[in-house]
Specification:
There is one protein chain. The chain is an alpha/beta fold. It has a single domain, classed as 3-Layer(aba) Sandwich (Rossmann fold). Helices cover about 30% and strands about 20% of the residues. α2 packs across α3 (about 120-130).
């Protein structure tokens, strides 16, 4: 983390930051990480955790809409976007601990959470271990960790081997194509997401997430039913694109069964005209249930 920086605080080798009106940017130093944070709006804090292989820009259309009522805080996770880590290694709780350190650095006692994909894993870790820090959370495209795994889930895991064992520098364009999106992304959108991965250290983070956070951490716990022996105290809304087969809201509801056995308050919602990358497919459809849920879970 000793690279030369520009006047804007960016590393000289970093790609240019995408410009989104209404967002401000800062860098926060926490143990082992120089975290880039984009913020928008004023009010109660909402922390937004992006997915893989994305970064803060995922929230470019969702953040300002929530920013009419909340202060939206969008960090780049360890190994992604414009954050710079001292070590390339990512362990099971590295990102959760980064979030806790960031909350402390920003003097945020309690936040609402919004999380997608990889970020949803981190959000669950935080909500179970530190429910006092999370007022409520909205999770996109990932089922509750207490959902029993079955054969019906296999199609939802088809991307895992390709990402875990991908060659360094190989294309990730396929991630942003059907069946993961309902509407194909433009070339400009795909390249904006993927540009930071031109840095070999950032590119290596993809495999690190699967090695340390997922396959070496959360997946064995899920398979063993670890979260079915714990209780989720944080009110949660789980949202799924209607075209994100098999992980649609009806499928997940059926697989979960009696939610009251595992959680105090869980709701489910469907997002029309959306697949896995719902914030790109239908950002308005993402914002509406979010706003309504946060109002109820005030």
């Amino acid at each position: 983390m000793d690279r030369k920086t520009t006047k804007a605080g960016l590393d000289a080798e970093s790609p240019e930051m995408p410009v989104v009106p209404g967002f401000a940017h800062r860098f926060v130093h926490i143990p082992g990480l120089r975290a880039h944070v984009a913020t928008s709006g004023e009010g109660e804090p909402v922390l937004m955790l992006h997915g893989l292989p994305q970064h803060w820009w995922q929230w470019r259309r969702v953040g300002p809409a929530l920013g009419e009522r909340y202060r939206v805080i969008c960090p780049d996770a360890r190994g992604f976007g414009w954050s710079e880590a001292a070590s390339p290694r990512i362990a099971r709780y590295s990102m959760r601990d980064d979030v806790l350190a960031l909350l402390d650095a920003l003097e945020l006692e309690r936040v609402r959470l919004v999380a997608h994909d990889m970020g949803a894993v981190v959000a669950a870790q935080l909500a179970y271990a530190h429910p006092e820090r999370v007022r409520a959370m909205v999770v996109l495209s990932v089922p509750p960790p207490f959902m029993r795994l079955g054969l019906g889930m296999l199609p939802a895991m088809r991307h895992v081997p390709k990402l875990r064992y991908r060659r360094a520098g190989s294309s990730l364009d396929w991630v942003f194509a059907p069946p993961y999106v309902a509407t194909p992304m433009s070339e400009q959108t795909r390249q904006t997401y993927l540009r930071p991965l031109r840095d070999p250290a950032k590119d290596a983070a993809i495999s690190e997430v699967y090695r340390g956070l997922l396959i070496g951490g959360e997946m064995p716990a899920l398979a063993a039913g670890a979260y079915r022996r714990r209780r989720l105290a944080v009110p949660a809304l789980y949202c799924f694109g209607e075209k994100d087969e098999p992980l649609t809201a009806p499928f997940v509801r059926k697989q979960v069964g009696d939610v009251s056995r595992f959680a105090d308050h869980v709701e489910f919602a469907a997002i029309a005209d959306a697949a896995h990358f719902a914030t790109d497919d239908n950002p308005d459809g993402v914002v509406e249930p979010m706003r309504e849920f946060f109002a109820r879970a005030a």
